[in-house]
Amino acid sequence: MSGSDDTPLMQQWREAKSRHRDALLFFRVGDFYELFHSDAEEGARLLGLTLTSRNNGAAARVPLAGIPAKALDDYLARLVRLGRRVAICDQVEDPALAKGIVKREVTEVITPGTVLAEGLLSERRNNFLVAVVPEGREGADAFGLAVLDVSTGDLTARKVPAAELTAELGRLEASELLLPRALETSRLLVREAGGPAFTFRDDWMFEGDVCSDELLRAYAVQSLEGFGFQSGDVSLVRAAGALVQYLGEIRPAGVGHLKPVKILRPGHVMLLDEMTRRNLELVEPLRAGEEGGTLLAVMDETVTAMGARLLRRWILEPLVIPEDIWIRLDAVTELHGSPKLRAGVRDALGGISDLERLAGKVGTGRVAPRDLLGLRRSLERLPAIRDAGGEASSALLRSLTSDMDCLEDLRDLLGRAIADDPPATLQEGGVIRTGWSTELDDLREVRDGAVDFIAGLQTRERERTGISSLKVGFNKVFGYYLEVTKSNLDKVPDDFIRKQTLANGERYFTPELKAWEEKVFGAEDRIGQLEGELFGRIRAQVASEVTRLQDAGSRVAAVDVLTTFAQVAERLGYVRPEVHTGFDLEVRAGRHPVVETMMPREEFIPNDLVLDENGWIVVLTGPNMAGKSTVLRQVGLIQLLAQVGSFVPADAARLPVTDRIFTRVGASDNLARGQSTFMVEMSETAAIVHGATERSLVLLDEIGRGTSTYDGVSIAWAVTEYIHERLGARTIFATHYHELTQLGDLLAGVKNMNVVVREVGDDVVFLRRLADGGADRSYGIQVARLAGLPSGVIARARELLSELEGTHTHGGEGLGRRGAHRPGSEAPPDQLSMFQVEHPVVRRLRDIEPDGLSPKEALDLLYALRREAKD
Ligand code: ADP
Ligand code: MG
Questions:
Q1: Closest Cα to atom 25, ligand 1: which residue?
Q2: Whose Cα sits closest to atom 18 in ligand 1?
Q3: What are phi and psi of 180, to 5 degrees?
Q4: Contact 622 CB / ligand 1 (< 6 Å)
Q5: Would you say the CB of residue 121 lies under 6 angstroms from ligand 1?
Q6: How far apart are the C-alpha atoms of 694 and 723, rounded to whole Å?
Q7: How far apart are CA 103 and CA 15, in angstroms?
Q8: How far is the centre of ligand 2, averaged over its atoms, from the C-alpha of 586 (Å)?
Q9: Lower CB count within 10 Å: N or C terminus of the chain?
Q10: What is the pLDDT of residue 832?
Q11: Is the minimum distance from the CB of 189 to ligand 1 under 6 angstroms?
């Protein structure tokens, strides 16, 4: 529509909207935020708002939807969760003073990756905005990533090969991606419901020169070398610069708590792909809603929000450098071994508020009086951590604590300056402590004296006038008054001046009262002003120490996580794993950390497992429900926990450092992505086959299930051979195809294990115990019976099974001798023949009594059989 017939209000809206086209514009009108035009329609759809229309002066009617200004945060939270961007257009002058239409401006843009409001952020996890820049121009094989948590100021940059981009973005659980338009059509970036919001910006904003200028300006430095950028790091500079530039637009007031860019070189942490993260249920349950069922949920006994966020990151970034793992384990060992040390540290952690996010608030000028009180209380706790840790002997604990800067100067400042019980907002007054400013104390004295005087007025005026019900009162609009009820109006003296008439009385003031009132108001104005100034100065002083605050925050977080590991180990009976640089994996009485917590104590059956040169590939068989998947994941989780630096749920564990943990769990639910299950399964398997090395741990659960049995067994067979011959990765392969147990005889590195069940009559009892050797059969029918299939079906299945097994005994000799089978040689046909079900025609033929048939019947039957045989 044209703008010519717009009202001034709509012109204002249009102006603001033109600068924030991709955002929903929340336009303040009185007590409401209004959405207009397509924003209104989208708001109605996303938020369930009622769509109305506004008569726009002339003929046009404008679609309109509104929310009460009070409810803004709730709506913002919902939109941010939906990945939507919102621009807040506020009234920037007092409507009472405005000449003509009230001036409005966009004061804040809220995007999923840049939100700061407390209500919109989860305390216990980081909120990452990630800029992604392709290395070079066309068909990039690597990307530069810059990762920022605005709430804490953490900024890192790293390079990621194209093949790992999805895994890395998934691990970061980014809320928003910042991308050059050139990537708009990239197939590497898939938009998904619940995934990050995509923000595309013009390609020039990602140019090297533009971006390095941005960085130089943001950090007020002359050169980027100090950050550790090297000549090949252009894509990192571009990503970090674009990110900082974007941030500058979102928060024009500046961000004072941005930490220096930290460059992460590859090889420090283990890459975890999406399948592994999901299948091992590290931080999110496989099925939404089952919140308790994750490793994070079991491990999270952190005391502080900073610790909770760091624990989540550590779980998603297992270490791969042995020394890094060892020093964490040493610290945990010490904290585990000394309950007194642990209790002392955890006790001190108890009173510490979120220093990292507080630094963020300080840096963006949003710090409230109570934040500073929280800061003071937190700083008071730091020395206890330093002192406790100072007595420790483990290197990591010592280095985190013994030279910790406890910011005593800031603590003293806040202790002297901020009241013990400050109000929520500065405007309420009483933030600054008595004794901090003589001027302020004097003013308060004047005010309080005047207030006292006025309070005493009631008694004096009652005596003077003889009106025993006379009251002195105060309200915001009229100030102080003397109130007299109707029945006493005749006693009112001449010097009372009427101020306000009520239903059953009158309110008055006197010249004396007026004078004292002015004294109170005058003092209060000055107090407000002065408190504002003083608070501003204190805030600035805190802001100038933001780096020290951040440093203390990150130490506290690490100490918290380390004590949490010790605490969990103590509570759940974990042991220190022996992490070594060899290849053998040996777990004694290992348990699944999550499954064991879901059942009563002692009910979980621990199991041993060894992967060494006598068998580094285990073919794990056993009927459905026996416990194969549980064992498989248990090994993965134990390995991961060890590399995170935690103790593990076992009686003893010797574990190699792995470079990757791969998991593939059969027939899961990627249908939502429009790929067939089997296709997904195969591409995931392909990823494993391409990525695994002899240092990897590969966990395969039922691969090949999504296709016919022939296909399935053949693929599983070939994959196992390939891993054995080419990759040498430690592998556990859970399968219900017990045909695969033959691999144990054929390949030197493959051994069979099974989860034992006992047959009792027609039933099976699950023992959950691992044993050497393959399962002899799959007990599928017994399990089906347990599951409640009708007895007729069970009986028929038994009949079929015995027929099949009968056929099988006529089958060939098997597959040759151990070692005789090389990869790539012909597929073993005979052992598959057991799958051949007898054709119904054959069965009918067998049942025919030829002597009892007439020639005509015989001929009809022959035709019928031929028909059957044909289809
Ligand atoms: P499978 O993969 O062989 O079909 P699962 O590993 O899914 O079997 O295990 C089935 C169920 O058995 C699990 O949900 C769990 O409740 C129980 N279970 C598995 N392992 C154990 C164990 N070691 N001790 C106790 N219960 C177990
Ligand atoms: Mg299973």
A1: 604
A2: 627
A3: -70, 150
A4: yes
A5: no
A6: 9
A7: 12
A8: 22
A9: C
A10: 42
A11: no
Q: Which atom of ligand 1 is nearest to the CA of 633?
A: 6
Cβ contact 595:286 at 8 Å: no
Residue closest via CA to ligand 1's atom 6 equals 627
- The ligand placed nearest to the CA atom of residue 705 is 2
pLDDT along the chain (871 residues), means of 10: 67 91 92 93 90 69 89 89 91 82 89 86 91 81 94 93 88 93 86 86 92 92 88 92 92 84 88 88 82 90 96 96 97 96 93 92 88 94 91 93 94 94 88 93 91 88 90 87 91 90 91 90 92 94 93 96 98 97 96 94 93 94 87 96 98 97 68 58 80 93 73 84 92 86 90 86 82 76 75 79 62 34 38 51 80 86 83 64
Element (H or E) spanning 643, and its range? helix 628-644
Amino acid at 87: A
* pTM, full prediction: 0.82
Packed helices 208-219 and 234-250: angle between N→C axes, nearest 10 degrees = 60
Looking at the CA of 783, which ligand is closest?
1
Residue appearing with tokens 């810059």: 146
DSSP 128-190: -EEEEEESSSTT-SEEEEEEEETTTTEEEEEEEEGGGHHHHHHHHT-SEEEEEGGGTT-TT--
Strands of the 497-502 sheet, one edge to the other: 471-475, 479-485, 505-509, 497-502
Distance 292 CA to ligand 2 centre (A): 20
Find out whether 4 and 10 touch, Cβ atoms under 8 Å: no
Quote the strand ranges of 306-386, DSSP E: none
* Residue 543 to residue 172: CA distance in whole angstroms: 28
Ligand 1 pocket test: which of 597, 630, 766, 767 has the largest number of ligand atoms within 8 Å of its C-beta? 630
Return the H-helix or E-strand segment holding 25: strand 24-29
Output the CA angle 478-481-487, nearest 5 degrees. 120
- Cα(77) to ligand 1 centroid in Å equals 39
Q: Is 778 in the pocket of ligand 1 (CB under 6 A)?
A: no
CA-wise closest residue to 569 among 655, 654, 641: 641
Taking a C-beta distance cutoff of 8 angstroms, is the pair 517, 371 a contact? no
Q: How far apart are CA 607 and CA 732, in angstroms?
A: 14
Crossing angle (nearest 10°) for helices 369-390 and 339-350 = 170
Quickly tell me which residue has 């064991």 as its tokens.
596
* Residue 650 token pair: 């076992």
Q: List Cβ neighbours of 481 (8 Å cut-off, separation of 6 or more).
A: 472, 473, 474, 475, 499, 500, 507, 508, 509, 513
Which pair of tokens denotes residue 143? Answer: 């990307």
CA 472–ligand 2 middle distance (angstroms) = 79
- Specify the pLDDT at position 635: 97
pLDDT of residue 475: 86
Instruction: Provide the CA 841 distance to its chain's centre, in angstroms.
Output: 59
